[in-house]
Amino acid sequence: MNIGEQIRLFRKRKGLTQKELGEKIGKTAQVVSNWERCYTPTLNHDDLIAIARALEITVPDIIGKEEAIDYLLHSGQNRPFDLEELLKYNQLQYRGLMLNDDAKDDIRVVLEIIYQRSMKSKKHKS
Asked: Which Pfam families does this entry report, sorted A to Z (predicted)?
């Protein structure tokens, strides 16, 4: 199933029209239609994230699990991506060891600690 078919499938499961999905992400129904019919050769990172959020799914659900990590790691070399999105992948590994859900939860806890420290530091600098 291609990306356009995935968007259509999840949009219909959510009970949305092309117009309604477009409104949720700031695009026209025609743009959504073009994506679904693969008239637009590629989707940019921001559009993929917006679609996933509007449909309450993940980017890997749209582009496929196999391509997802490569996409995130190589879409815009100097562009940051959300680690929370990365942790939604089914198969993550570290040094060859597959990470289970408990390990991913541990990573989320550490990331939250880093986030809180950064926010605290930011407040002190203001």
From this structure: HTH_3
